[in-house]
Amino acid sequence: MKTRPRVGTTKVLEFSVTSDHVIDFSDDVMPRILSTPWLIWFLEHTARDAMLAHLEPEESTVGVVVNVEHVSPTPVGARVKCQAKVIFIDKMTFSFELRAWDAQDLICRGTHKLRVIRKARLAQVVAHKEV
């Protein structure tokens, strides 16, 4: 790593909910709302974005733990603000507090851990598992 983010380092990412981000079981009664898997995708990328400036070219990050409580629905067209804040560092593993809001509510809270890895090393591990 070139540098290490400090505890308290915060990154924000915003997006608009599109048809691509909705649950796949909406119907005439069930509304088209942001799915939890897509919300987690955006939250993980927010944490990753907090790390990118600190990495060497041969490094990357991988998620190792996600714990998210999706507490409020968000409709298509709404803007969502995701926030990831570094709360703990253990060697090459970084823990984040996650939050997300739409214009009316907190829609999500949770935690995420990601690990800084060497890309070539990960490629070697994957190569041994290829079928």
Structure in words:
It is a single chain. With 131 residues, this protein is of the alpha+beta class. It has a single domain, classed as Hotdog Thioesterase (Thiol Ester Dehydrase, Chain A), CATH 3.10.129. 21% of the residues lie in helices and 40% in strands. The chain contains two helices and five strands; from the N terminus they run βαββββα. The chain has a five-stranded antiparallel sheet. The protein is globular, with a radius of gyration of 17 Å. The mean pLDDT is 97.
Present the secondary structure layout.
Blueprint lengths: L9 E7 L19 H17 L6 E12 L8 E12 L2 E9 L4 E13 H11 L2
Antiparallel strand pairs: 1-3, 2-5, 3-4, 4-5
**Main sheet: strand order:** 1-3-4-5-2
Shape: globular
What name does CATH use for the topology?
Thiol Ester Dehydrase, Chain A
Order of helical and strand elements: EHEEEEH
Number of domains as seen in the coordinates: 1
Mean of pLDDT: 97
Largest sheet: 5 strands, antiparallel
The CATH superfamily is Hotdog Thioesterase
Spans of 5+ residues with little confidence (pLDDT < 50)?
none
| Residues in β-strands, percent | 35-45%
Number of helical segments with 4 or more residues: 2
Please identify the top-level CATH class.
Alpha Beta
Measure the end-to-end span.
32 Å
Percent helix, as a range, is 10-25%
Number of strands: 5
CATH architecture: Roll
Rounded to the nearest angstrom, the radius of gyration is 17 Å
